[in-house]
Design a protein that fits this description.
CATH architecture of the largest domain: Sandwich
Distance between the termini: 97 Å
CATH class of the largest domain: Mainly Beta
CATH topology of the largest domain: Immunoglobulin-like
Oligomer: single chain
Strand order of the largest sheet: 4-3-6-7
Number of strands: 7
Number of helices: 1
Shape: rod-shaped
Structural class: alpha+beta
Order of helices and strands: HEEEEEEE
Radius of gyration: 29 Å
């Protein structure tokens, strides 16, 4: 065998080995991408899609009292977070019309009250600032 033929055979072996390596890395990349997509999907499901879809939100103070009434229609059931300053109350809802929650606040001054839900595929906050 001549030296040129030996070089060609050697190059073919190297090319074959590199092709195998490339396919292995491509497979690893695809498996990693799928695993990452599944993980992000699970996180998204538990952090955003877990929330209820609500409509016709109304947050009002009852006269001069310290009572606040939150009214809303639950279009799609799920979790709702009610936020009052740094306090967060979470509740799981069912489909219902004219849902109503009454709270009595002990706050003074301007207080932001919010309901966290979702619109479409994004989180959404309905907020109202009330002076006590």
């Amino acid at each position: 065998m001549s030296t040129d033929q030996e070089n060609i055979v050697g190059l073919k072996k190297e090319l074959h080995a590199e092709s195998k390596k490339k396919k292995r890395y491509q497979g690893l990349f695809i498996v990693s991408a799928i695993a990452l997509a599944l993980f992000l999907g699970m996180v998204y499901d538990r952090t955003v899609l877990d929330y209820a879809v609500i409509d016709n939100v109304d947050i009002q103070r009852q006269g001069e009292s310290r009572e606040v009434v939150l009214r809303f229609d639950v279009v799609e059931p799920g979790r709702l977070d009610f936020t009052y300053w740094t306090a967060i109350l979470s509740d799981t809802t069912t489909v219902q019309r004219q849902a109503k929650i009454r709270w009595e606040w002990q706050a003074s001054g301007n207080t932001e009250i919010a309901i966290r839900s979702r619109k479409w595929f994004l989180p959404y906050w309905n907020t109202e600032e009330i002076a006590f």
